[in-house]
């Protein structure tokens, strides 16, 4: 049979491939890379387990750390303004120092007046704050937002709620 014009002839003969030594080296290198990645994955998995253990251990020690850190933070809160005031005096910037002191006194006075006004107010106030002292002085009813869209409605002062949930 002779092939027809324009017909495609299919033969089942494999082409001869020329193999080079570099091909074998690349194959071995690829296999080794896969093994290294698998070992790295196992090591990373063990590391994340270790990190989880570390986080759980650290969170168990956190209350003790906070008890120790709180006086240091309070000391820092007191010492920083004093240090800045001394710096202003040394640099002979008394006007800036006077302005800063006046601003601090004004802010404290406004906070105190607001606190008294909130305590005397007869209506309902929705107060959103993280200031536990303000909550303790002003609030008579609390909405505590917990995780998973849960809200606890507590009718009473903050210190009482805190004592029950400590």
What tags apply to this protein structure?
single chain, 166 residues, mainly alpha, two-stranded antiparallel ribbon, 4 helices, 67% helix, elongated
Compact overview of the structure:
This protein is mostly helical.
Report on the structure:
The structure is a single chain. Helix content is 67%, strand content 7%. The protein is mainly α. It has a two-stranded antiparallel ribbon. It is elongated, with a radius of gyration of 36 Å. The mean pLDDT is 81.
| Tally of strands | 2
* Radius of gyration (Å): 36 Å
Percent strand equals 5-15%
Shape estimate? elongated
- Largest sheet descriptor: 2 strands, antiparallel
Query: So how many helices?
Result: 4
Q: Give the class from helix and strand content and strand pairing.
A: mainly alpha
State the order of secondary-structure elements, H for helix, E for strand.
HHHEEH
Compile the SSE list and pairings.
Layout: H1 21-90, H2 94-120, H3 132-138, E1 141-146, E2 150-155, H4 158-164
Antiparallel strand pairs: 1-2
